[in-house]
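In this section we walk through a basic example: taking a raw amino acid sequence and producing a predicted 3D structure, encoded as C-alpha cells. The instruction is simple. Fold the sequence below.
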Amino acid sequence: MACGAPGVPARVGNDGGVLRRRRPSPPTELVDVLDLRAGERILAWATGGSGEWYVGSNLALYLPAGAGTRRLGWEEIERADWQRDSDRLAIVEVEEWGAPERTTVVHIDDPGHLLELLRERVTKSVVCTVYARVRGSAGLSIVGRRSPSSQGPVTWSYVLSPGLDPADPTVVQTAQATLARARRELDGL
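The resulting C-alpha cell sequence is shown next.
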C-alpha cells in the first residue's frame, strides 16, 4: 500500500496517480479583508476553534481582530511558542526599550504549514544579533531586523535577561554601547 494510513489503501485517480486532499483556500471574503500589499502572496493559513483564520504571507502574519484583521510584519515578531498539547500559539511582538512584552495567545485547531512559515520568516527577518553581559550571567541581546522584502530600515530591539531592569543605568549604558557595536558590525557587512 502506498501513501495511505496503515491498513487504509490510498485512493487512486483515473490516471493511476494517487489523489491527495487539498487544503481549502481561505475564503475570498477573508482575502479581500486582508488588504494585501503589492506583490504580497498568501503562503500558509490555519483556522481556530471558532472558525477564525490566521494567515501568513511572504511579508506578514494576519491575526483576527474584531471584524477585521491585524497585520504583523515578520520583523515585528520577536518569537513564537507553540504548545501542541493545548493547540496554543503565543506570539511575542518586538517592543520599544523598557516596554513590557506584548503577547498574543491564539488557539489553532490545525496549524498546517503556518508554524513552519512563522519560524522561517521570523528567523529570516533577523540580520544581526549581538550579546553583551551586564553582570554575572545576566545580559542583553541587541537584535536587528528587516522586512523579508529587504526594503526599509533595520529596526533594533532589546532582549533582557530576567531580572535586569531597563531603568538601571548600567543596563542602559550597556545597551547603548552594544547597539553602537551592532550597528558597526552591520555596516561592515
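Looking at the output, two observations stand out. The radius of gyration is 21 Å. The first strand starts at residue 42 and ends at 48. In the next section we compare this with other chains.
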